């Protein structure tokens, strides 16, 4: 079968299951979570985290929670909650299991978080600091200097408690006080900056998208996250490498609160893996927003965006994104994954399942001079070359056809086997019009600049593909075509990478300097008439040209608009 390959996270989970490390009555041995902050659209990097977390739950009979980490009231909105839920489902995962929705919001824990903060104050493990933000930053020190204790560090617990309650009651302005942890007496000289009396709560007189104006103090991410994990009985809390230095605080917090009777043991454990960095994209929310707000792209779902809504609109399948994430592995060291791998995954996914179609993207008229005017002959082609059971599609052959411009050359180069005109006493070339007839070039029309405007041929009526006569014609070239009178004229969008630089924002570079001016070309193409029936999001392989999808926003019944997802072969890097 399609067994997922092993990686260090799977090894940890398997070992924990074997040793019964997280065994608790009535709970699965593996509970993970995907914890987005609802402050933007999900992108390819988030897909990686979704695949890792939901994938572990799926593979080890566990479950994965979707948890909105909504502790930053100013930046968060319901719109983002909705799109994140849509994207997780679209990607093929679900937080609904065993008749329950494992859907949580950190804001649902605000009361509990507050109660635990009071406990930490009462037990001397947290205090209210009244220094200014500047003093605090200065006294924290840096990697080469030790921190200095705050003058408020040893204020009596009762005083801190009263101040904290007054903070909650709205008696102070933003920034006047802050609640900090006191992990140990000498924590301010810890080599780990995250252990130097980290902030637990700050004052923010701000409206929250779910709790409204109930709160004017909000818990910090580093305080909220471990507690949310513990409340939800998470076993493996998986995050990216930059949180490695936060792990000692995570462990201290959940252990301290378990000691206080707030949670059952075993407590959750944090594990870090390398984030997914993909070439040719930027994923910083600030930069993506800039692309949208400056009109460089048409929106968050522009098919050139690395957002999941953008990748979906471009035509990438959920399966191809899962395959890409699976193949990119789980590593403990940062690195780059080539964008070409997503395109390969898309081809691998669609080649066996996408119906075929014919499109002429750069049309040139072909006139079959010996074919009767006004008549036509039906030609048949398989829906898919490896699925005869899917049957055939048919389309007419008639006097005037569209072929690709590149399928005619006035003066052929060596090895060119498509249409070329007669020269002196040498006849023009013979080419098979795929699924139709063999035809011989008899001449061409050109405009005042010498550019070919129409190619003339005579066809051989007994050469039709699939008939016994076909074998009598040995030709070296085969080309695709559509009947001019019957073709579906459609808008086709040819997409390319948004950036020409594989690392558009590395080392503080101006990422907009690397924008690819050719990332979108909109053309009018001629398609096989049956494609008029394509529904939004139907995907096809157009022979020679690659994989295409009927745009989910702009396609109308009978009038699809197609996006090229990717070409048939990698055209980048040789
Ligand atoms: P920001 O910090 O700008 O808000 P973020 O990318 O950290 O953005 P979150 O909503 O916090 O956004 O991310 C949700 C989860 O997705 C986190 O667990 C985070 O570690 C994970 N994640 C984000 N980007 C990547 C990535 N490139 N590779 C793997 N996991 C990622
Ligand atoms: Mg984040
Ligand atoms: Mg982040």
UniProtKB/TrEMBL annotation:
A motif ('KMSKS' region) lies at residues 282-286. Residues 30-347 form the Glutamyl/glutaminyl-tRNA synthetase class Ib catalytic domain. The keyword Ligase applies. Its main location: cytoplasm. Its EC number is 6.1.1.18. ATP binds at residues 37-39, 43-49, 240, 275-276. It catalyses: tRNA(Gln) + L-glutamine + ATP = L-glutaminyl-tRNA(Gln) + AMP + diphosphate. Pfam families: tRNA-synt_1c (PF00749), tRNA-synt_1c_C (PF03950), tRNA-synt_1c_C2 (PF20974). Keywords: Aminoacyl-tRNA synthetase, ATP-binding, Cytoplasm, Ligase, Nucleotide-binding, Protein biosynthesis. Residues 354-459 form the Glutamyl/glutaminyl-tRNA synthetase class Ib anti-codon binding domain. One of its GO terms (molecular function) is ligase activity. Residues 478-551 form the tRNA synthetases class I (E and Q) anti-codon binding domain. It is found in: Cytoplasm. A motif ('HIGH' region) lies at residues 36-46. L-glutamine binds at residues 69, 221. Belongs to the class-I aminoacyl-tRNA synthetase family. Monomer. NCBIfam families: glnS, PRK14703.1. This is Glutamine--tRNA ligase. It comes from Massilia solisilvae. The lineage of its organism: Bacteria, Pseudomonadati, Pseudomonadota, Betaproteobacteria, Burkholderiales.
